[in-house]
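ok new one. same drill as before - structure tokens go in, u give me an amino acid for every spot. 462 of them this time. try not to just spam alanines like last time pls lmao
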């Protein structure tokens, strides 16, 4: 299967592109409920029965990366296997993840060329009110910028944080929420994302050349083959994830279009009520096979309340329970950052609170102010040059990475999206740092050492 990975990725892309084309907003507006139900079933068929091609891309990336580390360990030592991959995997060519960042950079440069538009951005940022600026764009103001803005929304607007979570809206649904992101890019003088990536490519090539002198020509050929295979596998995986995000966003649009029909018929209160039904329930209801259809609105209301309640709490990273049992409510903790003193009472007193250890996934050292973020909804609080501290990230965070000087995450791995993008832009990054978002406070000074996998909280007494 892996020998045909390129063809399989192309097949997955073609399949998802076909669905995305049929589920465009203009077509959904003219579709009947039965046509929408057919699209609904097409998505489920892709997701449940035709997802192996996408899964193989993940597998290929993991296996090729493991092979690269094994080669380094065999010819050099454990330290090389641990420390060299972040440098060797910098600036991977043709990674689609960087496309949205490059597009935003171009948008910000266009905006900076117009002094009147710059004033409008500053006024909107000062009042934290972007609706008026977006309305002006829709009404014909700044036509050149608006055309480029619209093109970005059409091409990249489905990439948001939580892009595979169906209850989260995208930039395509709420274009005004992208404007503060552009404002953040406007504050950056340079270098551009492409220039930053080019610099990382030079560092990568220099590291490969240095390593080649140690290995000799025969093993250098093996190294370059292993490195190229790993790079291509990661590129395939990022291509697949791009299409996964696209198809999930289109599926959300299908669900909301179905919800609109049901609201007009008086069967639902809100279009997004459908998101609180399980897929067999929804199919049975829409196809006329539901046993108790009159109970659906009440069921939706109960689940909406339960979802809000559960979303306000978090669960442990590792949960072990006997079959058929559920996590007790008292095991869940509120989503409120705890102080270091509070944490000492919940089993992390053995942590060195000033010297946190994790896994370095992007080399370099940076000393800067920390910004702890629970989600991209706090974008407007982030300042250029701060160190981003987060529990985890996804492709929707990539635009923020370009503004950050460093990255600290509680979760992730060498091949996680955050690690890949950090290496693209040369951001020192340390992941797998236990309790990072609880121990670190916004405003304190951090020293992030991506080479040694350490995060030092300067001035903190343990």
């Amino acid at each position: 299967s892996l020998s045909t990975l390129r063809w399989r990725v192309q097949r997955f892309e073609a399949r998802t592109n076909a669905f995305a084309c049929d589920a465009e907003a203009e077509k959904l507006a003219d579709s009947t409920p039965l046509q929408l139900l057919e699209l609904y079933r097409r998505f489920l068929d892709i997701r449940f029965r035709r997802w192996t091609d996408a899964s193989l891309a993940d597998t290929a990336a993991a296996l090729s990366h493991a092979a690269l580390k094994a080669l380094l360990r065999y010819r050099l030592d454990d330290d090389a296997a641990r420390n060299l991959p972040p440098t060797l995997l910098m600036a991977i060519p043709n990674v689609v993840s960087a496309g949205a960042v490059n597009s935003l950079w171009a948008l910000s440069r266009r905006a900076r060329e117009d002094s009147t538009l710059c004033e409008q951005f500053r006024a909107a940022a000062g009042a934290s009110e972007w609706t008026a600026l977006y309305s002006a764009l829709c009404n014909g103001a700044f036509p050149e910028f608006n055309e480029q803005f619209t093109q970005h929304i059409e091409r990249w607007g489905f990439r948001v944080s939580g892009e595979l979570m169906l209850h989260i809206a995208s930039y395509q649904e709420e274009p005004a929420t992208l404007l503060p992101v552009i404002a953040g890019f406007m504050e950056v003088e340079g270098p551009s994302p492409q220039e930053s990536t080019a610099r990382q490519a030079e560092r990568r090539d220099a590291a490969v050349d240095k390593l080649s002198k140690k290995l000799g020509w025969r093993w250098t050929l093996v190294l370059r083959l292993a490195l190229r295979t790993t790079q291509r596998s990661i590129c395939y995986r990022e291509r697949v994830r791009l299409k996964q995000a696209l198809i999930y966003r289109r599926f959300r649009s299908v669900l909301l279009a179905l919800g609109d029909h049901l609201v007009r018929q008086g069967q639902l209160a809100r279009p997004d009520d459908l998101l609180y039904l399980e897929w067999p329930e929804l199919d049975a209801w829409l196809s006329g096979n539901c046993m108790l259809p009159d109970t659906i609105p009440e069921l939706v209301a109960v689940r909406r309340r339960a979802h809000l309640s559960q979303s306000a709490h978090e669960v442990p990273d590792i949960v072990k329970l006997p079959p058929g049992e559920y996590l007790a409510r008292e095991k869940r903790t509120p989503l409120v950052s705890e102080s270091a003193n509070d944490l000492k009472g919940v089993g992390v007193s053995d942590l060195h609170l000033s010297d946190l250890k994790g896994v370095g996934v992007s080399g370099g050292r940076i000393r800067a102010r920390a910004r702890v973020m629970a989600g991209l909804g706090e974008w407007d609080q982030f300042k250029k040059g701060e160190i981003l501290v987060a529990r985890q990230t996804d492709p929707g965070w990539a635009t923020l990475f370009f503004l950050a000087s460093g990255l600290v995450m509680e979760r992730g791995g060498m091949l996680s999206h955050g690690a890949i993008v950090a290496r693209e832009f040369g951001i020192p990054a340390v992941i797998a740092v236990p309790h990072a978002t609880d121990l670190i406070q916004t405003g304190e000074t951090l020293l992030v050492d991506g080479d040694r996998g350490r995060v030092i909280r300067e001035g903190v007494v343990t």
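The beta strands are 313-314, 333-334, 355-357, 359-362, 365-373, 387-390, 406-409, 429-431, 445-449, 454-457. and btw The mean pLDDT is 89.
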